[in-house]
Amino acid sequence: MDPPPRRLAAPMLLLLLLAAASPAARAWKKDEFRNCNQTPFCKRARGRAPHSLDAPLSLAAGSLSVSPDGSISASLSHPSRPRPLVLRLSALPPGALRLQIDEDYSTSPPPHRRFHVPDVLLPDVEARTLHLPEPKTAGGVSTVALSSDLDVVVKHDPFELTVRRAGSGDPVLSFNSHGLFDFEPLQVSKPEGETWEEHFRSHTDTRPRGPQSITFDVSFHGADFVYGLPEHGSTSLALRPTRGPGVEESEPYRLFNLDVFEYLHDSPFGLYGSIPFMIGHGARASSGFFWLNAAEMQIDVLAPGWDGATAAESGRIDTLWMAEAGVVDAFFFVGSEPKDVIKQYISVTGTPSMPQQFAVGYHQCRWNYRDEADVAGVDSGFDEHDIPYDVLWLDIEHTDGKRYFTWDHSAFPNPEEMQGKIADKGRKMVTIVDPHIKRDSSYHLHQEATEKGYYVKDANGNDYDGWCWPGASSYPDMLNPEIRDWWGDKFAYENYKGSTPSLYIWNDMNEPSVFNGPEVTMPRDAIHHGDVEHRELHNAYGYYFHMATADGLVKRGKGKDRPFVLSRAFFAGSQRYGAVWTGDNSADWDHLKSSIPMVLTLGLTGMTFSGADVGGFFGNPEPDLLVRWYQVGAFYPFFRGHAHHDTKRREPWLFGERRTALIKEAIHTRYSLLPYYYTLFREASVNGIPVMRPLWLEFPDDKETYNNGEAFMVGPSLLAQGIYEEGQKSVSVYLPGKESWYDLKTGSPYKGSVTHKLQVLEDSIPSFQRGGTIVPRKDRFRRSSTQMVNDPYTLVIALNSSSAAEGELYVDDGKSYDYQQGAFIHRRFVFADNKLTSFNVAPDNLDKKKFSTQCVIERIVILGLSSAAKKAIIEPGNQEVEIELGPVSLRSGSSLVAPTIRKPNVRIVDDWTIRIA
């Protein structure tokens, strides 16, 4: 966005800038953002042919050695370079390889060193490094055993690295096999006559440290498709090729966090967050590649034959990775199945945080609820229409002149009382806190940040002054741990006046968004803590802001209360701090459809607690679209309705009696499944496997699932597919696997490994339970999830062809960290040989604290059981109970179709067996 003329007075300047930020002005404008040809490092790298570099890097064989910490080091060089590169190889269990490459600063040191991204990897990563054996070198090739079944093969001249199977020698991942590894050296000074400045529109990037980009190629062998690299809009789950034969002119996948209004639903253009992690999967291999680098990246997925080869290798996908700055700090993951790859990525970036129970419910948001009366009216509207919800949100207009941590006392004169009334029903509230601090000498936060020198600096060393919602704004330097700690203290009740324990936080605009900045963000030559240029850490700024906010809420609760913080910007590791959403989408069918691949991709890359704005943020959804979005959104891990202030009000009861009933039914579906969702969030917090999953994550050998971005799994047990077209009459749904699937509403069975053409119904989207699974539910609907805590459970057992099934239930207090000390219930239910058995699967060594509940199981629905069964025996106690036909769900009008054990009343904390007599 062009800056306004300097001669304008401040009020007129603010008016013009905020007008430019309005949705009409800020709808997607291609010209506001750079493409690859306008980005010199990308244009240079993309224009190179394979093996065409003038100065290819070679490994000096005599430099290869095993270090005391068990890693392997070596030197990479070329005679034309001012200094060599230092290479380090290390291994992490069970068989991950880490490759680190930086410049050797002992030779001809430049004025600055390259940036290594801190505080993203888990702090114990180095401590978990395995001791690699001595390399075996012959014929210019060195081989190192990475694990019992994997080797690392390093070719010396030119340098190339391959991870291969130890027995067969089959490659899995290779680095620089096309000779495109280029590492632009930092210059001691600018050569005479050379220009380092870059210009885009009216903005100038001074680039005082010169070109410093890194490029390399990575090949995924045995892969049919590659996935990952959020965030971009797409209707395809797999990453489409961006270059090569048969590919129309396309941009690379861009990773550069930006505030993009009304983004395109299908484009490689980068959006609000960046995770440089790619997964390759095929019938023969699953692998992953992660590059820890927070500078702008551009990644090409190359179509077969891109390199001019007449016969492209079958089952190999080549990719080209380009970054403006940073170092090589890359991880290679190999697994027997894709879940192994995700677990290895999570082992270095951290598991998702365990959310509070309320956060898994439904959230109601709008920019903006006007005042306390509006809040009370919306809250009571849910009660009047018997629609449960858990969280009511306030956007920026709740503040005093867009000064965060304040309230507009004309609209919200009694914020604590308002929150208390909401909390009395077991509900919470969320307020927005963005990173731009209003430059107002009377604003205490600005005063303090200025006095302490806590703002990001511009290229001249002054506090950076940009424009955002408050007008003139500055931005806390969240790279500095001291400043993050200071920021966290602002959430204490004595500092955030009017906040209560039931208030949680939303971080928006933290890319960071700067309305008058280049590409609507901060200039790349701004300076952070440690003399780090913004270009080097841009994609992690929102991550550090998210971290500081989450840590602040933990401190506010004295370490006892799990935080809830929603962030728009994200980076690798953001999963440790809370939830994200897909940003400013639009109220159209295409955006509904693209939300599924977007949320699935976030889950694959660690961000399992994610969702899209139900109904679309911009525009007014037609009522049928809104209903369909609620029916899909009820399955998102993060379930929130949200809308722009220029849209019509869209609370669920405003669209007529029938549509209100349909939306209510969708929300009820979510609330009935809360025990299952909470159990899945527990699994994700342990091993990183996402709550919402692509079909191929559960069926990795089924090629029909590999690029299915319309259907999805929720955990291992449920499959759903949205309705993505207006007026759609029928839909084709592929049900993978050999076992039967059961309709979630009616219990009707469907064969697996078959594409079924189904009639589209208005009251639900196609959704099924997998044969061989047990799903826990709660079927009594209250005002909020908190009020359901003591309600009884229903178990839905879907039998497979062996008349067997299993599932799990995890329960804790839903709010504290006591679960980390053993205060939880974790049961496994197994149905086999006509017996249902409940086992305790909680580890024995977690016994410092206990959690108990009097909750019982009031219904057991058994799909696939013969209707001839009439009674069951509960042990211990030899208690006989009847089996009768009952509905699969308790909604009005449901048919009596499923054998049901009513009121067995066995406690979920106990061991027991129920035998079909």
Characterize the structure shown.
By secondary structure, the chain is of the alpha+beta class. Strand 3 and strand 4 form a beta hairpin. Helix 5 runs parallel beside helix 6, helix 8 (481-489) packs across helix 10 (541-556) and helix 12 (623-633) packs parallel to helix 13 (657-672). The protein contains 15 helices and 52 strands. It is globular, with a radius of gyration of 28 Å. Residues 1-26 have low confidence and may be disordered. Strands 6, 7, 8, 9, 10, 11, 14, 16, 19 and 20 form a ten-stranded antiparallel beta sheet that branches.
Present the secondary structure layout.
Blueprint (H helix, E strand, L loop, with lengths): L9 H11 L2 H4 L13 H7 L11 E2 L5 E2 L5 E6 L7 E8 L3 E8 L32 E3 L2 E5 L4 E6 L4 E6 L5 E5 L6 E2 L14 E3 L2 E3 L8 E8 L3 E4 L24 E3 L21 E5 L4 E6 L5 E6 L13 E8 L4 E8 L2 H12 L12 E3 L7 H13 L6 E4 L20 H9 L4 E5 L4 E2 L5 H9 L13 E3 L2 E4 L6 H9 L13 E5 L19 E2 L3 E2 H4 L3 H16 L8 E3 L11 E3 L7 H16 L5 E2 L11 H11 L5 E3 L15 H16 L1 H14 L4 E2 L1 H4 L12 E4 L3 E4 L8 E6 L5 E3 L5 E2 L3 E6 L7 E4 L2 E5 L15 E6 L6 E7 L13 E8 L2 E6 L15 E8 L7 E5 L3 E8 L11 E10 L4 E5 L1
Parallel strand pairs: 22-23, 22-34, 23-24, 24-28, 28-31, 31-32, 32-33, 44-48
Antiparallel strand pairs: 1-3, 2-3, 3-4, 4-5, 5-21, 6-7, 7-8, 8-9, 9-10, 10-14, 11-14, 12-13, 14-20, 15-17, 16-19, 17-18, 18-21, 19-20, 25-27, 26-27, 29-30, 35-36, 36-37, 37-42, 38-41, 39-40, 39-42, 43-44, 45-46, 46-47, 47-52, 48-51, 49-50, 49-52, 50-51
